[in-house]
Design goal:
The protein is mainly α. Helix content is 88%, strand content 0%. The chain is built from three helices and no strands.
Length: 81
Amino acid sequence: MEKNNNDQKRSSNKVRLQWAISDIMNGYLFLNEAVEKYEVPASTIILHLKKIQKEKKEALAFNNSKITAKESSNLRKEDDK
């Protein structure tokens, strides 16, 4: 019974964290407001926001490298003509 209670508590913490991050990213709340509303530590929110930012930068870099590769491939094709 104790384990089930801990699983529910952990799950609800994750959900509250997701809500807090969503509200911050959508511009509905500031960090301090999200901390108060969802009772999630600011440090946890900041860590997850940094992780999201890093993933976005990596995705953007990957997309830019694909575009660059495609452009150079197209240039090579034009040169071959």
